[in-house]
């Protein structure tokens, strides 16, 4: 595995710097040295599942006494949950539009920053038995395709890419998040799904990824921000900083993301 | 719970039934009231947040109506399927002694306690394109069930049937078997006895079971989205529409939820007096 060689380095100094520059107080009196402690709750897009789980482990190792809890899901649903008062510290979305939902409601602490970019690929059964080479092949009769619903970022990106290619595709299902679409390929229930490159890479035991040129027209920016009502503000800022650090970026690029 | 420390303000209300003197013990009344509140409050919250002014126009949006129609159709078809298969199964469990009956009864109730998503995955593994039966169905008859309306019906029936079987079996056990014996001594065959004596005898239980089954099918989400996917007009039922609307438009999600709530409550209320009331 490519990702396996990526081993994070301790970023305690960075965490201290961030905690020191951040607002004091909060209801978690951080214990001395590392500046962070307690639980950091991170709401993150489903497509970040593998890379953020890994980053979370590294962050915990770098900040003893800190626990990272994740809530992975469709970005827009997560945004709704945050605006409805879910106790989250950090929000990482798969598209600026979903981040805007949170910032417009005044729930972000500071300005979100883009920490990763992702592109779509066509996920097919391993070895590509149907010989799918591009978006146009998805409209062949008898080809069942899963696409994300347009309400979630991977669906919006798919719509952009299909429009750019002038392909009129009728999928069999509009999945709620990218993992749902990928699962249908892994189960063999569909012949192809439009998913992120990173999701296809994470499932490379079961699926192969077919790159297609139009995906360059639908690149997703992933913004991250600490939240205004974070129960653990110091932890929130430290986690955001860690994701953007060299160690965090190394994990993300290892997973197939581009980093700015 | 530390909340019980706040109990005193509620206490006077407890003692205000001097005439009847039923003396409901406080340790029962308090949790009972909390339990009621717990069940009713979220529904109240839904109604409070409902955008009543824009409700009519939101309801007539084609997406909402399509999902509602599909939900009503599939729930009704699923109930029909459950009646067709579930009533004989309930009769078998109630009336016939056979080895392993207790195991069969336990198996019937498994979908009741199984997380619906797990049910959906299980259905895929059997009826999916690569499933145990699905592959054969596809190759022999060209039938594929996932991502079709039939698939929605199947998923709903899988989750809802135990409700019907349990209700009907209970009714059959409660029914006096001597009526059936009398019919038999008067020369009625087994099938005639079943249709002319047994079924009318358990009609209230049957109806209650069917209503429960229908309501469960109407609310089905996990198995449906896993097995049948989500496509407007074909497999996107109301609960799926609610979930998807939640992604972008909280108000739309609330409106759809209120509709679903209204439909369920109306059906339950309309049928309550006639069939569901306890004998």
TrEMBL record, chain A:
GO terms for biological process: molybdate ion transport. Pfam families: SBP_bac_11 (PF13531). InterPro entries: ModA (IPR005950), ModA/WtpA (IPR050682). Belongs to the bacterial solute-binding protein ModA family. Molybdate binds at residues 47, 75, 178, 196. Keywords: Metal-binding, Molybdenum, Signal. The gene is modA. One of its GO terms (molecular function) is molybdate ion binding. This is Molybdate ABC transporter substrate-binding protein. Coiled coil: none annotated. Residues 1-19 form the signal peptide.
From TrEMBL, chain B:
InterPro entries: MetI-like, MetI-like_sf, ModB_ABC, NifC_ABC_porter, Sulph_transpt2. It is found in: Cell membrane; Membrane. It is a multi-pass membrane protein. The chain crosses the membrane at residues 26-48, 68-94, 106-127, 147-168, 197-217, 252-271. Coiled coil: none annotated. It comes from the Bacteria. GO terms for cellular component: plasma membrane. One of its GO terms (molecular function) is molybdate ion transmembrane transporter activity. Keywords: Cell membrane, Membrane, Molybdenum, Sulfate transport, Transmembrane, Transmembrane helix, Transport. Residues 68-269 form the ABC transmembrane type-1 domain. Part of the binding-protein-dependent transport system for molybdenum; probably responsible for the translocation of the substrate across the membrane. Part of the ABC transporter complex CysAWTP (TC 3.A.1.6.1) involved in sulfate/thiosulfate import. Probably responsible for the translocation of the substrate across the membrane. The complex is composed of two ATP-binding proteins (CysA), two transmembrane proteins (CysT and CysW) and a solute-binding protein (CysP). NCBIfam families: Mo_ABC_porter, modB_ABC. Belongs to the binding-protein-dependent transport system permease family. CysTW subfamily. This is Molybdenum transport system permease.
